[in-house]
Amino acid sequence: MSLLLEACALSHVYPDGSVGLDGCSLAIRSGSRNALLGSNGSGKTSLLLHFNALLQPTAGGVRFAGQPVDYRRSGLNALRRRVGLVFQNPDRQLFSASVIEDVSFGPLNLGLDEATVRRRVAEALAAVGMSELADKPVHHLSFGQKKRVCIAGVLAMQPEVLLLDEPMAGLDAAMQVELQALLDRLAGHGITIVLSTHDVDFAYRWADDIHLLAAGRCLASFAAADLPQHALPLRTAGQPLPAVVEFHRALAGHGLGGSTPPRSLDALLAHLTSKDTA
Amino acid sequence: MLIERAAYGNRWRRVTPAAKGAFALAGLIAAFAAPTPASALLVALLLAGVACLGAGVAPALYLRAAAPAVGFLGLSGLTLLLAIDSDFSWRWAPEAWPRVAALTARSLAALAALLGLVLTTPLPDLIGLLRRLRCPALLLDLMVLCYRMLFVFSAALHDTATAQRARLGYASPRLARRSLGLLAANLTLQVWQRAQGLHRAALARNGDGALRLLSPEFAHARRDTACAAVAGALLVILARLAA
User: Fold this and answer.
1) Using CB atoms, which residue from B124, B151, B205 is nearest to A105?
2) What is the DSSP string of A56-117?
3) Cβ contact B202–A95 (<8 Å)
4) Domain segments of chain A: what residues?
5) What Å distances lie between residue B88 and A58, B77, B85, B97, CA to CA?
6) What span, in angstroms and rounded, lies between the C-alpha atoms of A96 and A137?
7) Which residues of B touch A122 (CB under 8 A)?
8) Which candidate from B123, B207, B214 shows the least CB-CB separation from A100?
9) Is the pLDDT of residue A278 over 60?
10) Is pLDDT at A1 greater than 80 in this prediction?
Protein backbone atom coordinates (compact mmCIF):
# COMPACT_ATOMS: atom_id res chain seq x y z
CA MET A 1 0.00 0.00 0.00
CA SER A 2 1.27 3.48 -0.90
CA LEU A 3 1.69 6.28 1.59
CA LEU A 4 -1.19 8.75 1.52
CA LEU A 5 -0.55 11.16 4.38
CA GLU A 6 2.78 11.98 5.95
CA ALA A 7 3.80 14.19 8.83
CA CYS A 8 7.44 15.15 8.40
CA ALA A 9 9.13 16.47 11.57
CA LEU A 10 5.94 18.41 12.17
CA SER A 11 5.99 21.08 14.87
CA HIS A 12 3.31 23.50 15.95
CA VAL A 13 3.35 26.15 18.64
CA TYR A 14 0.00 27.77 19.50
CA PRO A 15 -0.25 31.57 19.86
CA ASP A 16 -0.29 31.23 23.69
CA GLY A 17 3.11 29.50 23.51
CA SER A 18 1.93 25.98 24.26
CA VAL A 19 3.48 23.27 22.11
CA GLY A 20 0.99 21.19 20.11
CA LEU A 21 3.45 19.15 18.11
CA ASP A 22 7.19 18.82 18.50
CA GLY A 23 8.93 17.15 15.55
CA CYS A 24 6.20 14.60 14.92
CA SER A 25 6.81 12.19 12.03
CA LEU A 26 4.54 9.40 10.89
CA ALA A 27 2.99 8.01 7.72
CA ILE A 28 -0.50 6.78 6.89
CA ARG A 29 -0.88 4.01 4.32
CA SER A 30 -3.66 4.26 1.74
CA GLY A 31 -6.72 2.17 2.67
CA SER A 32 -5.48 1.42 6.20
CA ARG A 33 -7.15 1.83 9.58
CA ASN A 34 -5.05 3.96 11.88
CA ALA A 35 -5.26 4.77 15.56
CA LEU A 36 -3.39 7.76 16.97
CA LEU A 37 -2.92 6.53 20.52
CA GLY A 38 -1.92 8.89 23.28
CA SER A 39 -3.01 10.50 26.49
CA ASN A 40 -4.63 13.95 26.73
CA GLY A 41 -2.34 16.69 25.43
CA SER A 42 -0.15 14.30 23.47
CA GLY A 43 -0.84 16.14 20.19
CA LYS A 44 -3.49 13.90 18.60
CA THR A 45 -5.98 16.68 17.82
CA SER A 46 -3.22 19.04 16.67
CA LEU A 47 -2.02 16.38 14.23
CA LEU A 48 -5.53 15.80 12.85
CA LEU A 49 -6.00 19.56 12.40
CA HIS A 50 -2.73 19.64 10.43
CA PHE A 51 -3.87 16.72 8.23
CA ASN A 52 -6.97 18.77 7.31
CA ALA A 53 -4.80 21.91 6.99
CA LEU A 54 -6.80 23.79 9.61
CA LEU A 55 -3.47 24.44 11.30
CA GLN A 56 -0.24 25.28 9.52
CA PRO A 57 3.03 23.86 10.81
CA THR A 58 5.46 26.09 12.66
CA ALA A 59 8.20 23.79 11.35
CA GLY A 60 8.29 20.64 9.26
CA GLY A 61 5.48 19.78 6.90
CA VAL A 62 2.58 17.59 5.82
CA ARG A 63 2.55 15.64 2.57
CA PHE A 64 -0.56 14.29 0.90
CA ALA A 65 -0.21 11.70 -1.88
CA GLY A 66 3.50 12.46 -2.01
CA GLN A 67 3.06 16.22 -2.47
CA PRO A 68 3.56 18.93 0.16
CA VAL A 69 0.25 20.48 1.23
CA ASP A 70 -0.50 23.68 -0.68
CA TYR A 71 -1.89 26.26 1.77
CA ARG A 72 -3.30 28.56 -0.89
CA ARG A 73 -7.11 28.72 -1.18
CA SER A 74 -7.29 26.37 -4.16
CA GLY A 75 -4.85 23.94 -2.55
CA LEU A 76 -6.83 23.89 0.71
CA ASN A 77 -10.09 23.24 -1.15
CA ALA A 78 -8.48 20.38 -3.06
CA LEU A 79 -7.07 18.84 0.13
CA ARG A 80 -10.27 19.17 2.19
CA ARG A 81 -12.25 17.62 -0.65
CA ARG A 82 -10.13 14.47 -0.20
CA VAL A 83 -9.42 14.59 3.54
CA GLY A 84 -12.47 15.00 5.78
CA LEU A 85 -12.38 15.74 9.49
CA VAL A 86 -15.04 14.80 12.06
CA PHE A 87 -14.74 16.85 15.25
CA GLN A 88 -14.97 15.44 18.76
CA ASN A 89 -17.97 17.49 19.90
CA PRO A 90 -20.90 17.34 17.44
CA ASP A 91 -22.31 20.61 18.77
CA ARG A 92 -19.15 22.33 17.53
CA GLN A 93 -19.63 20.94 14.03
CA LEU A 94 -23.38 20.99 13.38
CA PHE A 95 -24.56 24.53 12.71
CA SER A 96 -27.90 23.83 11.11
CA ALA A 97 -30.92 22.49 12.99
CA SER A 98 -31.86 20.41 9.93
CA VAL A 99 -29.98 17.15 9.33
CA ILE A 100 -30.30 17.36 5.54
CA GLU A 101 -29.18 20.98 5.48
CA ASP A 102 -26.09 20.30 7.56
CA VAL A 103 -25.04 17.22 5.56
CA SER A 104 -25.49 19.17 2.31
CA PHE A 105 -23.12 21.95 3.39
CA GLY A 106 -19.89 20.21 2.33
CA PRO A 107 -20.98 18.92 -1.10
CA LEU A 108 -22.60 22.28 -1.96
CA ASN A 109 -19.27 23.94 -1.15
CA LEU A 110 -17.71 21.65 -3.75
CA GLY A 111 -19.87 23.37 -6.37
CA LEU A 112 -21.92 20.27 -7.19
CA ASP A 113 -25.38 20.60 -8.75
CA GLU A 114 -28.47 20.15 -6.57
CA ALA A 115 -29.43 16.70 -7.90
CA THR A 116 -25.93 15.34 -7.20
CA VAL A 117 -25.92 16.89 -3.73
CA ARG A 118 -29.32 15.36 -2.91
CA ARG A 119 -28.06 11.94 -4.06
CA ARG A 120 -24.86 12.26 -2.03
CA VAL A 121 -26.74 13.42 1.08
CA ALA A 122 -29.10 10.44 0.79
CA GLU A 123 -26.17 8.03 0.32
CA ALA A 124 -24.21 9.50 3.23
CA LEU A 125 -27.20 9.34 5.57
CA ALA A 126 -27.86 5.75 4.49
CA ALA A 127 -24.20 4.87 5.11
CA VAL A 128 -24.44 6.01 8.73
CA GLY A 129 -27.92 4.54 9.22
CA MET A 130 -29.63 7.91 9.63
CA SER A 131 -31.99 7.93 6.62
CA GLU A 132 -35.09 7.55 8.77
CA LEU A 133 -34.08 10.42 11.03
CA ALA A 134 -33.18 12.82 8.21
CA ASP A 135 -36.20 15.04 8.90
CA LYS A 136 -35.70 15.17 12.65
CA PRO A 137 -34.25 18.39 14.03
CA VAL A 138 -30.66 18.08 15.20
CA HIS A 139 -31.54 19.14 18.77
CA HIS A 140 -33.88 16.17 19.09
CA LEU A 141 -31.12 13.67 18.26
CA SER A 142 -29.06 11.75 20.80
CA PHE A 143 -25.32 12.38 21.16
CA GLY A 144 -24.52 9.24 19.14
CA GLN A 145 -26.96 10.20 16.39
CA LYS A 146 -25.44 13.68 16.22
CA LYS A 147 -22.05 12.05 15.81
CA ARG A 148 -23.39 10.01 12.91
CA VAL A 149 -24.74 13.17 11.28
CA CYS A 150 -21.26 14.71 11.63
CA ILE A 151 -19.74 11.68 9.89
CA ALA A 152 -22.42 11.85 7.16
CA GLY A 153 -21.61 15.53 6.64
CA VAL A 154 -18.02 14.57 5.83
CA LEU A 155 -18.87 11.37 3.91
CA ALA A 156 -21.13 13.37 1.58
CA MET A 157 -17.94 15.02 0.29
CA GLN A 158 -16.69 11.50 -0.61
CA PRO A 159 -13.23 11.89 0.94
CA GLU A 160 -10.41 9.39 0.51
CA VAL A 161 -9.31 9.91 4.10
CA LEU A 162 -11.62 10.19 7.08
CA LEU A 163 -10.12 11.80 10.19
CA LEU A 164 -12.05 11.33 13.43
CA ASP A 165 -11.14 13.10 16.65
CA GLU A 166 -11.95 10.86 19.63
CA PRO A 167 -14.98 9.30 17.92
CA MET A 168 -15.81 7.03 20.87
CA ALA A 169 -15.80 9.83 23.46
CA GLY A 170 -19.17 10.25 25.14
CA LEU A 171 -20.72 7.16 23.56
CA ASP A 172 -22.18 4.32 25.61
CA ALA A 173 -21.09 0.71 24.96
CA ALA A 174 -23.89 -0.05 22.48
CA MET A 175 -23.21 3.14 20.52
CA GLN A 176 -19.49 2.33 20.47
CA VAL A 177 -20.24 -1.08 18.94
CA GLU A 178 -22.47 0.57 16.31
CA LEU A 179 -19.85 3.19 15.50
CA GLN A 180 -17.14 0.54 15.21
CA ALA A 181 -19.35 -1.41 12.78
CA LEU A 182 -19.83 1.79 10.78
CA LEU A 183 -16.06 2.42 10.69
CA ASP A 184 -15.53 -1.17 9.57
CA ARG A 185 -18.02 -0.70 6.71
CA LEU A 186 -16.32 2.54 5.64
CA ALA A 187 -12.90 0.91 5.76
CA GLY A 188 -14.37 -1.94 3.70
CA HIS A 189 -15.19 0.62 1.00
CA GLY A 190 -11.52 1.55 0.80
CA ILE A 191 -11.64 4.76 2.84
CA THR A 192 -8.47 5.41 4.81
CA ILE A 193 -9.41 6.05 8.42
CA VAL A 194 -7.33 7.90 10.98
CA LEU A 195 -8.79 8.32 14.44
CA SER A 196 -7.47 9.56 17.73
CA THR A 197 -8.09 7.63 20.90
CA HIS A 198 -6.69 7.00 24.35
CA ASP A 199 -8.37 3.59 24.54
CA VAL A 200 -5.57 1.06 24.01
CA ASP A 201 -8.00 -1.88 23.98
CA PHE A 202 -10.02 -0.34 21.14
CA ALA A 203 -6.89 0.65 19.19
CA TYR A 204 -5.48 -2.89 19.47
CA ARG A 205 -8.81 -4.48 18.52
CA TRP A 206 -9.69 -2.26 15.56
CA ALA A 207 -6.65 -0.68 13.92
CA ASP A 208 -4.26 -1.94 11.27
CA ASP A 209 -1.59 0.53 12.34
CA ILE A 210 -1.03 2.21 15.68
CA HIS A 211 0.88 5.48 16.06
CA LEU A 212 1.92 6.21 19.63
CA LEU A 213 1.95 9.88 20.51
CA ALA A 214 3.37 11.61 23.58
CA ALA A 215 4.37 15.23 24.20
CA GLY A 216 3.74 16.17 20.57
CA ARG A 217 5.95 13.45 19.14
CA CYS A 218 5.28 10.11 17.51
CA LEU A 219 7.16 7.62 19.71
CA ALA A 220 6.50 4.62 17.50
CA SER A 221 4.38 3.43 14.56
CA PHE A 222 3.75 -0.28 14.19
CA ALA A 223 1.21 -2.82 13.00
CA ALA A 224 -1.46 -3.25 15.67
CA ALA A 225 -0.83 -7.01 15.75
CA ASP A 226 2.74 -6.26 16.91
CA LEU A 227 1.63 -4.13 19.84
CA PRO A 228 2.56 -6.70 22.53
CA GLN A 229 6.18 -6.30 21.42
CA HIS A 230 6.08 -2.55 22.04
CA ALA A 231 5.49 -2.51 25.77
CA LEU A 232 8.30 -0.02 26.40
CA PRO A 233 7.11 2.81 24.11
CA LEU A 234 3.58 2.12 25.35
CA ARG A 235 4.74 2.66 28.92
CA THR A 236 6.61 5.83 27.89
CA ALA A 237 3.37 7.12 26.31
CA GLY A 238 1.55 6.41 29.58
CA GLN A 239 -0.48 3.60 28.05
CA PRO A 240 -1.07 0.19 29.61
CA LEU A 241 -0.95 -3.04 27.66
CA PRO A 242 -4.37 -4.05 26.33
CA ALA A 243 -6.31 -6.11 28.86
CA VAL A 244 -6.56 -8.99 26.41
CA VAL A 245 -2.75 -9.15 26.10
CA GLU A 246 -2.30 -9.20 29.89
CA PHE A 247 -4.99 -11.82 30.19
CA HIS A 248 -3.49 -13.90 27.40
CA ARG A 249 -0.04 -13.78 29.06
CA ALA A 250 -1.53 -14.97 32.35
CA LEU A 251 -3.32 -17.80 30.57
CA ALA A 252 -0.23 -18.68 28.57
CA GLY A 253 1.60 -19.17 31.90
CA HIS A 254 -0.88 -21.97 32.54
CA GLY A 255 -0.52 -23.41 29.05
CA LEU A 256 -3.78 -21.86 27.80
CA GLY A 257 -4.74 -19.20 25.25
CA GLY A 258 -2.63 -20.24 22.24
CA SER A 259 0.69 -18.88 21.03
CA THR A 260 -0.51 -15.71 19.25
CA PRO A 261 -2.23 -13.10 21.42
CA PRO A 262 -5.77 -12.49 20.19
CA ARG A 263 -6.91 -8.90 19.40
CA SER A 264 -9.99 -8.87 21.57
CA LEU A 265 -11.51 -10.52 24.61
CA ASP A 266 -14.21 -11.97 22.32
CA ALA A 267 -11.50 -13.61 20.18
CA LEU A 268 -9.77 -14.95 23.29
CA LEU A 269 -13.05 -16.30 24.62
CA ALA A 270 -13.82 -17.91 21.27
CA HIS A 271 -10.37 -19.53 21.30
CA LEU A 272 -10.84 -20.90 24.83
CA THR A 273 -14.36 -22.13 24.06
CA SER A 274 -13.23 -23.90 20.91
CA LYS A 275 -10.47 -25.53 22.92
CA ASP A 276 -13.01 -26.70 25.49
CA THR A 277 -15.30 -28.21 22.87
CA ALA A 278 -12.33 -29.82 21.11
CA MET B 1 -40.57 25.18 22.98
CA LEU B 2 -44.37 25.09 22.47
CA ILE B 3 -44.10 26.40 18.94
CA GLU B 4 -41.27 23.98 18.24
CA ARG B 5 -43.34 21.02 19.45
CA ALA B 6 -46.37 21.98 17.36
CA ALA B 7 -44.28 22.75 14.26
CA TYR B 8 -42.71 19.28 14.22
CA GLY B 9 -45.77 17.37 15.41
CA ASN B 10 -48.66 18.53 13.22
CA ARG B 11 -50.42 16.86 10.29
CA TRP B 12 -49.16 19.46 7.81
CA ARG B 13 -45.49 18.92 8.63
CA ARG B 14 -44.90 17.51 5.11
CA VAL B 15 -46.92 20.21 3.32
CA THR B 16 -44.73 22.65 1.44
CA PRO B 17 -44.10 25.85 3.43
CA ALA B 18 -44.96 27.77 0.26
CA ALA B 19 -48.59 26.60 0.63
CA LYS B 20 -48.71 27.45 4.32
CA GLY B 21 -47.01 30.78 3.64
CA ALA B 22 -49.52 31.62 0.89
CA PHE B 23 -52.43 30.81 3.20
CA ALA B 24 -50.92 32.87 6.02
CA LEU B 25 -50.45 35.80 3.61
CA ALA B 26 -54.08 35.47 2.57
CA GLY B 27 -55.01 35.45 6.27
CA LEU B 28 -53.11 38.73 6.76
CA ILE B 29 -54.84 40.28 3.73
CA ALA B 30 -58.22 39.06 5.01
CA ALA B 31 -57.45 40.58 8.42
CA PHE B 32 -56.81 43.97 6.82
CA ALA B 33 -59.70 43.58 4.37
CA ALA B 34 -62.25 42.74 7.08
CA PRO B 35 -64.56 45.80 7.18
CA THR B 36 -65.94 45.24 10.70
CA PRO B 37 -64.59 43.88 13.98
CA ALA B 38 -67.04 40.99 13.74
CA SER B 39 -65.74 39.93 10.33
CA ALA B 40 -62.15 40.21 11.56
CA LEU B 41 -63.02 38.02 14.55
CA LEU B 42 -64.63 35.53 12.14
CA VAL B 43 -61.37 35.44 10.16
CA ALA B 44 -59.42 34.86 13.38
CA LEU B 45 -61.76 32.04 14.39
CA LEU B 46 -61.55 30.43 10.95
CA LEU B 47 -57.75 30.58 10.95
CA ALA B 48 -57.55 29.10 14.44
CA GLY B 49 -60.01 26.39 13.39
CA VAL B 50 -57.94 25.55 10.32
CA ALA B 51 -54.78 25.24 12.46
CA CYS B 52 -56.47 23.07 15.10
CA LEU B 53 -58.82 20.97 12.98
CA GLY B 54 -56.92 20.94 9.69
CA ALA B 55 -53.30 20.74 10.84
CA GLY B 56 -54.15 18.96 14.08
CA VAL B 57 -52.49 21.45 16.44
CA ALA B 58 -53.80 20.69 19.93
CA PRO B 59 -56.20 23.51 20.95
CA ALA B 60 -54.64 23.74 24.42
CA LEU B 61 -51.19 24.13 22.89
CA TYR B 62 -52.56 26.69 20.43
CA LEU B 63 -54.07 28.75 23.25
CA ARG B 64 -50.88 28.57 25.31
CA ALA B 65 -48.79 29.70 22.34
CA ALA B 66 -51.25 32.51 21.61
CA ALA B 67 -51.66 33.62 25.24
CA PRO B 68 -48.67 36.03 25.54
CA ALA B 69 -49.51 37.82 22.30
CA VAL B 70 -53.25 37.93 23.10
CA GLY B 71 -52.44 39.27 26.57
CA PHE B 72 -50.25 41.97 25.07
CA LEU B 73 -52.97 42.79 22.54
CA GLY B 74 -55.62 43.05 25.28
CA LEU B 75 -53.40 45.35 27.31
CA SER B 76 -52.72 47.51 24.26
CA GLY B 77 -56.46 47.71 23.52
CA LEU B 78 -57.21 48.78 27.06
CA THR B 79 -54.52 51.43 26.91
CA LEU B 80 -56.01 52.83 23.71
CA LEU B 81 -59.34 53.20 25.50
CA LEU B 82 -57.75 55.58 27.98
CA ALA B 83 -57.51 59.26 27.27
CA ILE B 84 -55.31 61.80 29.03
CA ASP B 85 -56.78 65.26 29.35
CA SER B 86 -54.89 68.55 29.25
CA ASP B 87 -54.68 68.61 33.07
CA PHE B 88 -52.97 65.17 32.94
CA SER B 89 -55.95 63.38 34.49
CA TRP B 90 -57.04 60.20 32.74
CA ARG B 91 -60.51 58.98 31.77
CA TRP B 92 -62.11 56.22 29.75
CA ALA B 93 -62.71 57.20 26.12
CA PRO B 94 -65.78 55.32 24.85
CA GLU B 95 -65.70 57.37 21.63
CA ALA B 96 -62.50 55.48 20.69
CA TRP B 97 -64.19 52.09 21.03
CA PRO B 98 -65.11 51.53 17.33
CA ARG B 99 -61.55 52.15 16.18
CA VAL B 100 -60.02 50.17 19.06
CA ALA B 101 -62.38 47.25 18.40
CA ALA B 102 -61.52 47.24 14.69
CA LEU B 103 -57.81 47.50 15.39
CA THR B 104 -57.82 44.78 18.06
CA ALA B 105 -59.96 42.38 16.01
CA ARG B 106 -57.79 42.86 12.94
CA SER B 107 -54.64 42.34 15.01
CA LEU B 108 -56.14 39.16 16.43
CA ALA B 109 -56.89 37.89 12.93
CA ALA B 110 -53.34 38.77 11.80
CA LEU B 111 -51.95 36.99 14.87
CA ALA B 112 -54.02 33.90 14.02
CA ALA B 113 -52.66 33.96 10.47
CA LEU B 114 -49.06 34.07 11.67
CA LEU B 115 -49.67 31.51 14.41
CA GLY B 116 -51.13 29.16 11.82
CA LEU B 117 -47.90 29.44 9.86
CA VAL B 118 -45.37 29.08 12.69
CA LEU B 119 -47.27 26.34 14.51
CA THR B 120 -47.32 24.15 11.40
CA THR B 121 -43.91 24.94 9.88
CA PRO B 122 -40.51 24.19 11.45
CA LEU B 123 -38.11 27.10 11.24
CA PRO B 124 -35.64 25.36 8.86
CA ASP B 125 -38.53 24.94 6.38
CA LEU B 126 -39.45 28.60 6.77
CA ILE B 127 -35.83 29.60 6.20
CA GLY B 128 -35.83 27.38 3.10
CA LEU B 129 -38.93 29.24 1.86
CA LEU B 130 -37.28 32.61 2.52
CA ARG B 131 -34.22 31.38 0.63
CA ARG B 132 -36.40 30.59 -2.38
CA LEU B 133 -37.94 34.04 -2.05
CA ARG B 134 -34.40 35.42 -2.33
CA CYS B 135 -34.13 36.98 1.12
CA PRO B 136 -30.64 38.37 1.84
CA ALA B 137 -28.26 35.45 2.47
CA LEU B 138 -26.62 37.15 5.45
CA LEU B 139 -29.96 37.42 7.24
CA LEU B 140 -30.76 33.76 6.54
CA ASP B 141 -27.30 32.63 7.71
CA LEU B 142 -27.88 34.49 10.96
CA MET B 143 -31.28 32.85 11.34
CA VAL B 144 -29.80 29.36 10.74
CA LEU B 145 -27.02 29.90 13.29
CA CYS B 146 -29.21 31.61 15.89
CA TYR B 147 -31.85 28.88 15.71
CA ARG B 148 -29.27 26.11 16.16
CA MET B 149 -27.38 27.96 18.90
CA LEU B 150 -30.60 28.62 20.77
CA PHE B 151 -30.76 24.94 21.66
CA VAL B 152 -27.02 24.51 22.19
CA PHE B 153 -26.90 27.42 24.64
CA SER B 154 -30.11 26.56 26.40
CA ALA B 155 -28.55 23.14 27.10
CA ALA B 156 -25.28 24.80 28.24
CA LEU B 157 -27.23 27.26 30.40
CA HIS B 158 -29.23 24.44 31.97
CA ASP B 159 -26.11 22.32 32.65
CA THR B 160 -24.13 25.19 34.17
CA ALA B 161 -27.04 26.41 36.30
CA THR B 162 -27.66 22.86 37.53
CA ALA B 163 -23.98 22.47 38.45
CA GLN B 164 -24.13 25.76 40.34
CA ARG B 165 -27.34 24.77 42.11
CA ALA B 166 -25.77 21.45 43.13
CA ARG B 167 -23.07 23.43 44.95
CA LEU B 168 -25.53 25.79 46.66
CA GLY B 169 -24.93 28.53 44.11
CA TYR B 170 -28.44 29.91 44.56
CA ALA B 171 -28.83 29.35 48.31
CA SER B 172 -29.16 33.07 49.11
CA PRO B 173 -29.87 36.22 47.10
CA ARG B 174 -26.22 37.25 47.36
CA LEU B 175 -24.99 33.86 46.15
CA ALA B 176 -27.63 33.84 43.41
CA ARG B 177 -26.40 37.22 42.11
CA ARG B 178 -22.82 35.96 42.15
CA SER B 179 -23.74 32.69 40.42
CA LEU B 180 -25.74 34.53 37.79
CA GLY B 181 -22.74 36.74 37.05
CA LEU B 182 -20.45 33.72 36.76
CA LEU B 183 -23.00 32.00 34.54
CA ALA B 184 -23.14 35.01 32.21
CA ALA B 185 -19.33 35.19 32.09
CA ASN B 186 -19.06 31.48 31.38
CA LEU B 187 -21.65 31.62 28.60
CA THR B 188 -19.96 34.65 27.04
CA LEU B 189 -16.73 32.67 26.86
CA GLN B 190 -18.59 29.67 25.43
CA VAL B 191 -20.19 31.85 22.74
CA TRP B 192 -16.74 32.98 21.66
CA GLN B 193 -15.24 29.48 21.76
CA ARG B 194 -18.17 27.90 19.94
CA ALA B 195 -18.12 30.61 17.28
CA GLN B 196 -14.47 29.76 16.68
CA GLY B 197 -15.25 26.03 16.67
CA LEU B 198 -18.06 26.41 14.13
CA HIS B 199 -15.88 28.57 11.91
CA ARG B 200 -13.17 25.90 12.00
CA ALA B 201 -15.72 23.13 11.30
CA ALA B 202 -17.07 25.09 8.33
CA LEU B 203 -13.52 25.56 6.99
CA ALA B 204 -12.94 21.80 7.30
CA ARG B 205 -15.83 21.30 4.87
CA ASN B 206 -14.57 23.89 2.38
CA GLY B 207 -16.71 26.68 3.83
CA ASP B 208 -15.79 30.15 2.58
CA GLY B 209 -18.14 32.33 4.60
CA ALA B 210 -21.57 31.76 3.04
CA LEU B 211 -23.73 28.93 4.36
CA ARG B 212 -24.78 26.97 1.29
CA LEU B 213 -27.51 24.59 2.37
CA LEU B 214 -29.96 22.32 0.63
CA SER B 215 -33.61 23.13 1.20
CA PRO B 216 -35.92 20.21 2.00
CA GLU B 217 -38.14 18.87 -0.77
CA PHE B 218 -41.91 18.49 -0.46
CA ALA B 219 -44.16 16.17 -2.42
CA HIS B 220 -47.21 17.72 -4.19
CA ALA B 221 -45.80 21.22 -3.68
CA ARG B 222 -47.61 22.73 -6.68
CA ARG B 223 -50.93 21.10 -5.87
CA ASP B 224 -50.78 22.13 -2.20
CA THR B 225 -49.77 25.70 -3.03
CA ALA B 226 -52.64 25.98 -5.53
CA CYS B 227 -55.11 24.63 -2.92
CA ALA B 228 -53.76 27.09 -0.33
CA ALA B 229 -54.08 29.98 -2.81
CA VAL B 230 -57.71 29.06 -3.56
CA ALA B 231 -58.51 28.66 0.16
CA GLY B 232 -56.80 31.97 0.87
CA ALA B 233 -58.79 33.76 -1.84
CA LEU B 234 -62.03 32.32 -0.42
CA LEU B 235 -60.99 33.55 3.04
CA VAL B 236 -60.45 37.10 1.73
CA ILE B 237 -63.82 37.04 -0.09
CA LEU B 238 -65.54 35.72 3.04
CA ALA B 239 -63.94 38.45 5.15
CA ARG B 240 -65.31 41.10 2.76
CA LEU B 241 -68.77 39.52 2.53
CA ALA B 242 -69.10 38.86 6.28
CA ALA B 243 -69.82 42.57 6.82
Assistant:
1) B205
2) --SEEEEEETTEEPP-SHHHHHHHHHHEEEE-S-GGGT---SBHHHHHHHHHHHTT--HHHH
3) yes
4) 3-241
5) 73, 20, 5, 21
6) 9
7) none
8) B214
9) no
10) no
How far apart CA A166 and CA A195 sit, in angstroms, is 7
DSSP per-residue letters across A228-277: GGGHHHHHHTT-PPPHHHHHHHHHHTTT-S-SSPPSSHHHHHHHHHHHHH
The answer to whether the Cβ–Cβ distance between A95 and B215 falls below 8 Å is: no
> Residues of B with CB below 8 A from A97's CB?
123-124, 144, 147-148, 151
CA distance B8 to chain A (A): 8
Q: Are B30 and B236 in contact (CB under 8 A)?
A: yes
How far is it, in rounded angstroms, from Cα A34 to Cα A202? 11
Q: Is the ipTM of this complex over 0.95?
A: no
Whether residues A89 and B216 touch (CB distance < 8 A) is answered with no
Half-sphere exposure in the Cβ direction for A252 (13 Å, CA): 12
Domain boundaries, chain B: 2-121+218-241, 135-204
Low-confidence ranges of chain B (pLDDT < 70): 243
Residue A10 per-residue DSSP state = E
Q: Rounded to 5 degrees, what are φ and ψ at A213?
A: -115, 140
In the predicted model, what is the mean pLDDT of residues A157-183?
90
Q: How far apart, in whole angstroms, are the C-alpha atoms of residue A77 and residue A70? A: 10
CA pair distance A184, A179, nearest whole angstrom: 9
What letter represents residue B230's amino acid? V
Instruction: Tell me the per-residue pLDDT of A48-63, one tens digit each, with 9 for 90 and over.
Output: 999 999 999 999 999 9
Instruction: List pLDDT tens digits, range B151-203.
Output: 888 888 998 999 898 888 898 999 999 999 999 999 998 888 888 888 889 99
A153, A103 Cβ separation under 8 angstroms: yes
- Count of CB atoms within 10 A of residue B164's CB? 19
Q: pTM for this one? A: 0.84
The SS3 call for residue A11 is strand
Q: What share of chain B is helix, strand, coil (3-state, %, to 5)?
A: 75, 0, 25
CATH topology (fold) of A3-241: Rossmann fold (3.40.50)
